[in-house]
């Protein structure tokens, strides 16, 4: 082979390599552009979702305050009821003790009445 053919083949081979490299670079650029466009679209979607969540959060904020106030009022009412319940329980205990005392007294009175009845019967029998 002559040196001219080798040079021509080398130049043609180099041109082919440059053309292939150019195609590869072009494909890479197009791929990056598609990826960038897709990412831009995704970012816009996320921004829209973020704005929607911000709006929902702003809508919920007043509800939170109302519910916290209601919870505070219910807690105060529960404390008041607990105090009342303790008072009623103490009163019930006192009344239970009084009932027990009176019941014992009634039992003693009944026993005393029985003894007096027996004594009266004895005296009446002696008459």
Please, could you describe this protein's structure?
By secondary structure, this protein is mainly alpha-helical. Helices cover 98% and strands 0% of the residues. It has one helix and no strands. The protein has one helix spanning 3-126.
List the helices and strands and how they pair.
Layout: H1 3-126
Put simply, the count of helices is: 1
Mean pLDDT: 93
* Total DSSP E strands: 0
Order of helices and strands: H
Structural class determined from secondary elements: mainly alpha
From the spread of the alpha carbons, the general shape counts as rod-shaped
Which band does the percent of strand residues land in? under 5%
List keywords for this structure.
single chain, 127 residues, mainly alpha, 98% helix
Quick take:
With 127 residues, this protein is mainly α. It has one helix and no strands.
